[in-house]
Amino acid sequence: MASEIKPLCGLERVKLADAVPLPTPFTLFVFPTTYCNFKCQYCGHSLGYEQMKDKYNFEPENMSMQTYSRIIEQSKEFSSNYKMLSLTGHGEPLLNKELPLMIELAKKANVAERIEIISNASLLNRERSQALVEAGLDILRISLQGLSSRKYEQVCGVKLDFDELIDNIRCFYQNKKQCKVFVKIMDIALEHGEEERFYHLFSDISDRMYIERCRPVYDGVDYSQNNTQVIIDRYGRTHAKRMVCPLPFYMLGIFPNGDVEPCDTIYKPVVVGNVHRESLYSIWKGANLRQFQRMQLEKQRESNLKCKVCCAPDDVAQPEDVLDDAADTIVKRI
Predict the structure, then answer these.
(1) Of 45, 74, 131, 132, which sees the most CB atoms within 10 A?
(2) Is 152 a member of any domain?
(3) What sequence ranges are listed for the domain Radical SAM core (predicted)?
(4) Which of 234, 210, 212 lies closest to 5 in space, CA to CA?
């Protein structure tokens, strides 16, 4: 078995409480598109665009190269590189035809230690694979929705040739050069007893593979049949409820229109700036973000109605990221 069974998150982490405030975000999420060709039953896209507009004030769009170029140019103002630039956000990034060019521009600008995308891989044909690899993609994270065509139709409402999907992933892996291939699937997308089949399928066509637990990520989506609990994260670890969200202390997310939020969630709990009106550096150092961070450190997260329904601190935050116990000390620093 060449592939490792490990979570797909970054495993080399610093203790965030000792490092904040950061001079440069560790991670920048840039959303090339918020369109998706799937409607997975545990995702907000399952609601449809009309309900997503009503629930999240969400409207799908593609990011223009003009907006993206501004982001890359502004990223050069930071004193160090991002640890990760993720060209992912509430949609299928391969739907933006400019994605290889986006990767290439970021590579040439040398603004990030690594560049990744998270994709459902349904559009990953030989031509797109070659374009991504030649552009310099460092990590392809593939999110599967089942291990059969029937399961895909059940989970995300699409007719997909599963054998062809596997062939396309294998083709990418065999020609990936510097790129790492990480594959994950949610537990609810597996039939009983399919865990070993998942590991067998991807043992020689991925670098890392993992089965994640489905969490109640999207407010308004029915998770009643999935036995989800917010005190268990997607990696199966139990913990006390977290009152400080660590995400705003090490990342920024940018929607296709240039709006900047202090995380990568669909909720947009606060817009701390827009790249067409101010620079990312000034946003990162600015009063809007500091005010939001202070609110978190004062453990008033649930006073923000968007944060109140978000499970990110209890779902994706790693043990090294937790700030609750150090909140009083950190608030004095910022």
Answers:
(1) 45
(2) yes
(3) 22-248
(4) 210
Query: d(Cα 285, Cα 271) in Å, to the nearest integer?
Result: 14
Q: Quick one: tokens of 293?
A: 């961070």
First to last CA, the chain: 47
Question: How many structural domains are present in the chain?
Answer: 1
DSSP state of 286: S
Q: How far apart are CA 18 and CA 16, in angstroms?
A: 5
For 93-151, what is each residue's pLDDT tens digit? 999 999 999 999 999 999 999 999 999 999 999 999 999 999 999 999 999 999 999 99
Distance CA 71, CA 76 (A): 9
Neighbour-count burial for 128-146, b at 16+ CB within 10 Å, e otherwise: bbebbbebbbbbbbbbbbb
- 63: domain range? 25-218+228-332
Helices marked H in the chain — which ranges? 16-19, 49-56, 65-75, 99-109, 126-135, 149-156, 162-174, 195-201, 280-285, 287-297, 305-308, 312-315, 327-333
Token pair belonging to 282: 């000034």
DSSP secondary-structure letter at 41? T
Q: What confidence score (pLDDT) does residue 331 get? A: 92
Tokens found for residue 80: 């160090």
Give the residue among 106, 112, 111 at the shortest CA–CA distance from 135. Answer: 106
Amino acid (1-letter code) at residue 326: A
Task: Indicate the SS3 state at residue 243.
Answer: coil
- Tell me the residue ranges of DSSP E strands in 214-320: 251-254, 259-261, 273-274
Report the candidate in 147, 187, 194, 153 with the shortest Cα–Cα distance to residue 169.
147
Looking only at the bridges linking them, the beta strands covering 259-261 and 273-274 are antiparallel
Residue 52 lies in a domain: yes
In this structure, is residue 109 part of a structural domain? yes
Check which CATH number belongs to the domain holding 137 and give it.
3.20.20.70
Question: Closest by alpha carbon to 184, among 153, 158, 212?
Answer: 212
Q: At a CB cut-off of 8 Å and minimum separation 6, what does 197 contact?
A: 147
Q: Would residue 16 count as lying in a domain? A: no
Contact predicate 117/99, CB 8 Å: yes
Taking 50 as the pLDDT cut, the residues of the chain under it are none
